[in-house]
Amino acid sequence: MLAKVHTVAVQGLKAIPVTAEVNSARGVHFIMVGLPEQAVKESHERIVAAIQNCGFDFPVLNIVVNLTPADIKKEGAAYDLPIAIGVLAVCKEVETARLEKFLMVGELSLDGSLLSVRGILPTAIMARSMGYEGLIVPKANVREAAVVNNIDVYGASNLQEVIDLVNGKPSAIEPTVVNTREEFYARQSTYDIDFADVKGQEAVKRAMEVAAAGGHNLIMVGPPGSGKSMMAKRLPTILPPLSLRESLETTQIHSVAGKLESTTSLIANRPFRSPHHTISQVALVGGGQNPQPGEISLAHNGVLFCDELPEFSRSVLEVLRQPLEDREIHISRAKYAVDYPASFMFVASMNPCPCGYYNHPTRQCVCTPGQVVRYLNKISGPLLDRIDIQVMITPLTFDEMSNIEQGESSEAIRQRVVKAREIQERRYAATPHVHCNAQMTSALMREFAQPAAEDLELLRSAMQRYKLSARAYDRILRLARTIADLDGQETIGRQHLIEAIGYRNLDRSTWGE
Questions:
Q1: pLDDT number for residue 398
Q2: Do residues 58 and 95 make contact, with C-beta atoms less than 8 angstroms apart?
Q3: Are 193 and 158 in contact (CB under 8 A)?
Q4: pTM score, two decimals?
Q5: Helix (H, G, I), strand (E, B), or coil: what is residue 390?
Q6: Is 64 helix (H, G, I), strand (E, B) or coil?
Q7: Theoretical Cys-Cys bridge with 348: which of 174, 216, 306, 365, CB 3.0 to 4.6 Å?
Q8: How far apart are CA 470 and CA 459, in angstroms?
Q9: Any bridge partners for residue 138, and if so which?
Q10: Strand partners, 332
Q11: What are the DSSP E strand ranges found in 262-377?
Q12: Backbone angles phi, psi at 135, to 5 degrees
């Protein structure tokens, strides 16, 4: 007897339809084919125990399980449930005619309970597009799947509940309903930290406001204790709230990576990822034997913060160059090729020298000139050229530190940022994949970021004086466009261009001065 159960294989952010075909005949073997990896092959023991602990006998037959299409590698334990239901179907414990209506995934425990799996949101989106009436998932994943409308999503706690549902019993579990928009806006929360806690550093706060308004990359160079990490961690508090579209994109990535909690349906706040400097290339950009999103993809629509940038391996930092330009990462290996989105704000901080006190106003630097040069050269020119805003941070004076007055709040800064982003959203409404000034193409820059003829001479002088590249020219114009948006100006003025140039004139030989 033959039974077919519908399930999926998740590759990258895509869910690919897979059919678990189970055939029974005389004999005593259990054979699984269709390119299963080790975790899938081990499902036999879990399925046998789960079926027996639910009160059924595992058939003493020759069972052949074929996972089609056979040329796609099957990974993970999500195939436990469809294979178990297929085995029960050939034993006539489950109505095979009703299996066509459902798509199901889930890992089985030995007692028959269902455990959570990765990639549920892409699975739910694919199930809806394929026209299935129902999607059966572990109860721990049900809220994540239920944000996809126009399909019934059932959260099952154990194998018996799935059997009752497929057989159409009156006592079967009911579909879970989630109001996507209500759920999304209810989860948008306030932050425990605020820019009001930051004393002084008004110039750096302004730079971070410009970065947030246009989605620009930022690096801060300064001595220890000057507030670099403190301000970077407060950057998400001034960023615009996630849109529903951005939330779905971000949630899919975290779903595939297995980073979502069981109570989470949608990610409502922008991600802030801060990897340690010992991170590997694969952990940063993604990949591995079983491809997974890296930190740059987990930071999609949010912030990737690299503290103590020169302490990162140079080879690790160099892999950031292409994603910073393309805002996506293509991972190609011998056995697979996947794409992950990687549109993030890159924020970095570093000291001006190994001891941290090069040209400090009150502390003596103990580094030799050669040590300083080697330390700064850990950051390559091409990578630094991709960072729009480069600012120096000076240590606070005693009077600034002892001042009990609070600075401007994150909410006040955020309101200005949101207004600037709304201008950009309207401006680029007709251009797909462009939502802020940092994403402007060359054609858009010619249309929206062209300064007056007399101001071009100022830019020409700055380019020649600081020996800036063509990429720096584009980034200065993007910055000027953002500064003009913050001022509510239709065109780029001279003052906007001067401020933008000021963020790009850092010479490594003068860092710390």
A1: 81
A2: no
A3: no
A4: 0.90
A5: strand
A6: strand
A7: 306
A8: 12
A9: 156
A10: 337
A11: 272-273, 286-287, 292-293, 303-306, 328-332, 337-341, 345-350
A12: -120, 125
